[in-house]
Specification:
The chain is an all-alpha fold. It has a domain of 108 residues. The chain has 8 helices and no strands. α2 runs parallel beside α7 and α7 packs across α8. It is elongated.
Length: 172
């Protein structure tokens, strides 16, 4: 009886291992190509640029820069943009993307995605996704610009409370 149970167990493990085959590099390459992943990643740079500019503007607050300070700010922005483009270049990101997909999806699921993205609906998703992502990014940035002052106020209040508590604790 034990031998039968062990045999059934081995068969079940074999079946589940077979059913959850890791996707091949070739199929993942095909998926990334079909979905224009490189174009999607390259298309995020305008949003990243806007985010960096917005971040610098928020960091400076109401400070008006003179000509020399503006040059420094522009140079810093250029350096940061270059670093982001180098670190998040498609060819540098591709191995990570493939690894994540291999860990997350089976070959059957990747095949299903490939079929979907080859379909009319899938092609529409591919075509419209950059616009959807840009719109989403713009909306999130707008929301963040409203939230940031509130977050800063909470942080300032917290720092003030901590300082007040430290002062009252030291006088005890």
């Amino acid at each position: 009886m034990k031998k039968i149970l062990i045999l059934v167990g081995i068969m079940l493990v074999s079946i589940s291992a077979f059913a959850e085959t890791k996707p091949s590099d070739a199929s993942l390459d095909e998926l990334l190509t079909i979905t224009d992943s490189q174009k999607l990643i390259d298309g995020m740079w305008p949003q990243m640029d806007a985010m960096l500019k917005n971040s610098a503007k928020q960091a400076l607050g109401e400070i008006v820069l003179n000509e020399e300070q503006q040059k420094i700010s522009d140079n810093t922005h250029a350096k940061m943009t270059t670093m982001f483009k180098e670190e998040f270049a498609y060819e540098k990101m591709k191995p990570m993307i493939i690894k994540i997909y291999k860990e997350s999806f089976s070959q059957d699921e990747i095949d299903g995605m490939i079929s979907f993205y080859k379909s009319k609906a899938g092609k529409a998703v591919i075509k419209k996704m950059p616009v959807v992502m840009q719109s989403t990014s713009e909306n999130v940035q707008a929301q963040m610009s409203q939230i940031t002052p509130k977050l800063l106020k909470i942080q300032q209040d917290s720092v003030a409370e901590i300082k007040a508590n430290a002062t009252s604790a030291s006088t005890k």
